[in-house]
Every structure is written in structure tokens, then in C-alpha cells.
Amino acid sequence: MLTGIVIVTYNSDIERLGLILTSLEGHGLKYFVSDNSTDFEKKSAIQNICNTLNASFIDMYGNVGIAKAQNEGILLALREGCDDVLLLDDDSLPSSDMLKKLDARNLLVHKTGTIPVVCANAIAENGQTLSYFQKPVIDGIFAYRDMISSGTLINKSIFDLVGLHEEKLFIDCVDYEWGWRAASLGVNIFIVKNAVLNHRLGNGRVKAINSGYGAPIRHYYQYRNILYMMSRH
Hints:
Elements: E1 3-9, H1 14-21, E2 29-35, H2 40-52, E3 56-59, H3 66-79, E4 84-89, E5 92-94, H4 98-102, H5 105-112, E6 117-124, E7 136-138, E8 141-143, E9 152-155, H6 156-162, H7 174-184, E10 189-199, E11 205-208, E12 211-214, H8 216-230
Parallel strand pairs: 1-2, 1-4, 2-3, 6-10
Antiparallel strand pairs: 4-9, 5-10, 6-9, 7-8, 8-10, 11-12
Helix pairs in contact: 1-2
């Protein structure tokens, strides 16, 4: 089994990207970096580290949104023979055994008779769990409705059924929409509690008076996309 690791970058922290590209233990891993960077120096540095660490670099020639960048990475991974795709953000650092823990999917296949989507448990830098656990299915594995794409392992057969991400959403609700669409087609989605993904909150937040609020561009996509999604089935 060959697993493609698809990472979307955007003017990324190069040191952290290097850690992500070397974090996972296991064989049969191929890395694909879809780059949305608008800063030429950052783009060049990202391409250089990809060359150094044998990751495929996909230049998106500007910020085309996370959905399109993910889709390009997924398509290349599938063309290069990957059976599974693991999605990661450039601010998400997997624990070294995260993929091994996601192998719990095999137990779920035995239990349900179908291949599910399995997701890692996102933990913020302050130790807060960012994931939401619903009904327990097997010890340490729970049903999951509002999927976060980073840390999500998806089999090729599921992309064949569900399709790719909706590109006109650009950023916010992209993962929710795909997960809801998958569930509507009968795909089971589960979260594995001990598959840890160390997540740093994105740079679309501005600190003020010991709290935070979204940067204006994120406010735009959050409100636009939520209103748009309210009209959907």
C-alpha cells in the first residue's frame, strides 16, 4: 500500500514544514506539497526543502484556495499510484505514530464491511482537544460528523465515489462540505483518539485583549460560505 501525504502550503514556516515532511514513521510514503504562496522567497524556500526531502512540489502560481490546492495534490498522488491519501495543513505536525494509529481503520472495515474515512485527533499547542467525539464505535474510536481535513486518511475508492473538494468555497467549510457529502453517500467517518495531530491555529486570527478574532479575509469566507451552505441539502 502506497500512501500519498498531501500538504498545502501558504507562505509557510520553513522549519515547521521540514518537521512535517520528516515526522511520520513507516514505509510506502510519498509527499506532495501544493504551494499557494504569494511570497517569492517563501515559495523558493518551500521548493528547495521539497527537493532536499524528496517531496513533489506543485506550484499553484498564487493563492488559489485550499480546496483547489488539495485537489491538485490528491490527483497527482492518485496518478502516481497511491492507494490512500493523508491530508495535512502546513501548521499541523503529526505524531510519529499517527499513521500507525490510523491503521485502526482495519478494525472498522471488519466491523462495518466498508472502508471508512479515518481522522486524527487534533490537539492545540495549549493541549486543548480541537476535535469533537460523538458516539463511541470501538474503544478509542468515535463517530465523527464535522470532519477537519488535516490528519484525515482517505482511500482512493472513496474519492472515486465522493469526488474532490468544492473549489469555489476556497477555504472555510471545504472540509465540512466534503465530509457531509461523503456521509450522504453512505461513507462512514470516524476519529481515532490516540492518533494525535499537533495543530497550530492558522494565521487568519488576530490577537486582541487576550482573545482572538478572524482576520477580515477569513471573516469574509466564513460568513459567505456559511450562508451559501445553509442553502444546501
